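Lecture 7 notes: from sequence to structure.

We start with a single chain of 37 residues. Read the sequence below before looking at the structure.
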Amino acid sequence: FKIYEEGMKLVKYCNQKIDEVEQKILVINEKGDLDEF
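Now the structure, written as C-alpha cells:
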C-alpha cells in the first residue's frame, strides 16, 4: 500500500506540473509573447 501511496503522490505532482505548463502556454497564446507569471 505504501508503494501505491507514493505513486499517487507522484501522479498528483505530475498533474500539477502539467497544469502549470498549460497555464503558461495559455498566457503565451493570449499575449502573443513570452511573459510568464
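The chain has one domain: 1-37. Keep this in mind for problem set 3.
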